[in-house]
Structure formats: C-alpha cells, structure tokens
Design goal:
This protein is α/β, with parallel strands linked by helices and 321 residues long. It contains 15 helices and 7 strands. The longest helix has 25 residues. Bound molecules: 1,4-dihydronicotinamide adenine dinucleotide (NAI).
Length: 321
C-alpha cells in the first residue's frame, strides 16, 4: 500500500473497483489527462494504478523475508491486482516475524515450509488449497541460499556438502514445488509458475560461486518441467532473470555494490528494481501471457544485450590516462 500512501479517494475507488478500472482503460488519452487534472492525480500515479489483472486468482508466494525481498513486492502487487494467496518461507526465516506484517497487509495466510522437504511442501499445498478454496493459479519460487557464499568460500575452494545444499535449496526445490503440486493436482489449468534467476547462469561472475550452477539448473528445470506441465495441464513455467537487487540474498554476495553499479551503468534502462520485477511477474501470473512458457526472461534494463556502454568506456579511459 506504500505506493498509494498519498492518493486521493478517487484513486482508491479505481484501485478497488475493477469496473472503474475498465472505465478508465477506455478513456482516451485526452480524457485521462482531464481526469488527472480534475481529480488532482499526477499522470505517473494514473498510469501505475491497479488493473485487476489477478482478480479472482489464487496463488502461493514463497521467499518474502523482509520489505526488501523481491517476493515481498510481488505479494503487494498481487494483492493490489486482486489475487488471494498464501505466503510461505522456511520456518527459521519466519521466526524473524517480519512476514506477519505482509500477511496482515495482504490478507494472506502464512504456511511455513522448508522448500527442500517434500513433506512440508505437501502440507503447504494442502493448507493453501484449503485456505484459498481451490487449486492455485500461480506459484512464485523466490528462494536462494548458498552457505559457500555466506561463509566466503572461493570457487576453487568450495565445500561440496554446502554445494549440494545450494543446489537443493535454490534449484531442486523448484522441481519439488512443481512435482508435489502436479501429484496433488494443485495448480489449475493454464496456471503459471515463476522462479527468479540471475545472469550468472549464462556468464561468469567470480563471486557468485556455486549459485551460478544453481541458477543454471533452475533455468533448465523451467524448460524441462515447462514441457511436462504444459502438456499435462497447460501450466506455464518460466524464470525471470533479474538485475542485481539490494536484498538480504543479493547484498550477501561479496563485491555486490560494485557489480550493482556496474550493471546499472551498463544497462540502457538502468537496473530493474524489486518493484519493477513485481510488475513484470504480475504479467506472467496474469492471462495476458498465456502462451509464454519454458523461457528464461531477462528483466535487467537491457544489461544482457550490451557489450559495453558509453559510461563504462568513459570510466576505462579515465583509468587509462
Ligand atoms: P531474500 O533474501 O529476500 O529472499 C531469499 C529467500 O529464500 C528468503 O526469504 C529465505 O528465507 C528463502 N529461503 C532460503 N532457504 C529456504 C528454504 N530452505 N526453504 C524456503 N525458503 C528458503 O532475497 P531476494 O533477492 O529477494 O531473493 C529472491 C530470489 O531472487 C532468489 O532466488 C535470488 O537468487 C533471486 N535473485 C536475486 C537477485 C538479487 O540481486 N537480489 C538478482 C537475481 C535473482
């Protein structure tokens, strides 16, 4: 609700009543400008209003740890767009208690589940379907953890127990979330499953260590499971490859500030924020992307397609002089 903190009654009506959203959608650009002036709405606010894209949809959102988490922003946007959902996280993370605020704000139920445990995932779907009153339309996998990164182990000195744990938590859990769902027939026809990835799956980033392999596996699972779930139930499965983002997981990587700034200066649109990511993921949960599946979708301000930017050239030239 933060983004609507200072909006007028008129905007609240539009936000909560999809009928008005439809009406507004049919305004001509000229009329919309007049409406903005009459009701003292800035054009920026006018165009960032909710559209009811997830009206009537049910979902499960994992990974909201605190207000910085990408999943936190996705939950807020999903709520604004009319979805009902459950929130899940590892029981240890939930003990921090932050998630209660989000649950209160969005009317969600919190169901603890370690995403590596089949038993806990089974319980997650059982309780979610019970709470939501039917199968879910979308599932968000926003989970990542590497003990090697946490403990500062270099790529040429990895602890293999921890490596396997990184793969289990950050990638295999994505497969588990879908396999458990499919066995329980917990995702509705045409549903959408999204996981968050990073470009280190394709390119070398020295300090991303074993998470690079985890992300490569995550994206591969999206392609393989996307085929099977698509055939079986028309379920879409995609990964979104997001810009570096200032979150607990993100800033835990050594040298984060430097590669955050580097990516920002390389990308013609600048880094995508967690809020931007939420907007994009909402479209993937919505009916506007019914035929998008098995993709790794770059959401990075253009970073993945740039060789070098003028800003970086300038910096290098200054350094060479
Ligand atoms: P975050 O730290 O807020 O979220 C990571 C979440 O994973 C936490 O909520 C944590 O409790 C959860 N988690 C860890 N182990 C778990 C387990 N065993 N079972 C269930 N949940 C578990 O950080 P952020 O950045 O929002 O991360 C979300 C996703 O976005 C991750 O997959 C991350 O790799 C990805 N991503 C992050 C980027 C960044 O720069 N922050 C860039 C690109 C992708």
């Amino acid at each position: 609700m933060q983004r609507y903190a200072n909006i007028s009654k008129y905007q609240q009506i539009i936000q909560y009543h999809p009928f008005w959203v439809q009406k507004v959608d049919h305004f001509s650009r000229k009329n919309s400008l007049i409406a903005c002036q009459n009701h003292k709405i800035t054009q920026e606010n006018f165009y960032t209003m909710a559209y009811g894209l997830l009206k009537g949809k049910r979902g499960i959102i994992s990974g909201a740890l605190n207000e910085d988490s990408i999943a936190w922003k996705i939950a807020q946007r999903a709520h604004e767009e009319g979805a009902t959902f459950t929130l899940t996280n590892a029981p240890l993370a939930m003990r921090m208690g932050e998630i209660n605020k989000l649950a209160e704000e969005t009317g969600a139920k919190i169901i603890g589940a370690d995403a590596t445990s089949i038993e806990e995932l089974e319980n997650l779907y059982d309780e979610s379907l019970d709470f939501l009153g039917g199968p879910v339309d979308f599932v968000l996998h926003s989970i990542g953890m590497s003990t090697n990164i946490r403990k500062g182990r270099e790529y040429s000195d990895l602890n293999y127990e921890w490596f396997l744990k990184s793969l289990d938590v950050s990638a295999l859990s994505f497969h588990k979330m879908m396999q458990v769902a499919q066995k329980k027939d917990a995702i509705a026809q045409g549903g959408s499953v999204v996981a968050l990835s990073y470009i280190a799956a394709q390119r070398s980033f020295p300090d991303y260590t074993d998470m690079a392999q985890a992300k490569a596996m995550l994206e591969s699972i999206a392609r393989s499971y996307g085929y099977h779930y698509g055939k079986a139930k028309g379920v879409r499965v995609n990964t979104v490859s997001q810009s570096p983002t200032k979150t607990t997981a993100g800033t835990g990587i050594s040298g984060f500030n430097a590669f955050y700034e580097y990516a920002n200066q390389m990308s013609p649109l600048g880094n995508a924020t967690a809020d931007d990511c939420a907007d994009y993921v909402i479209t993937l949960f919505s009916d506007l992307t019914k035929k998008v599946t098995m993709q790794n979708l770059f959401h990075d301000g253009g970073f993945s397609c740039v060789g070098i930017s003028e800003e970086i050239v300038e910096k290098m030239e200054q350094g060479i002089k």
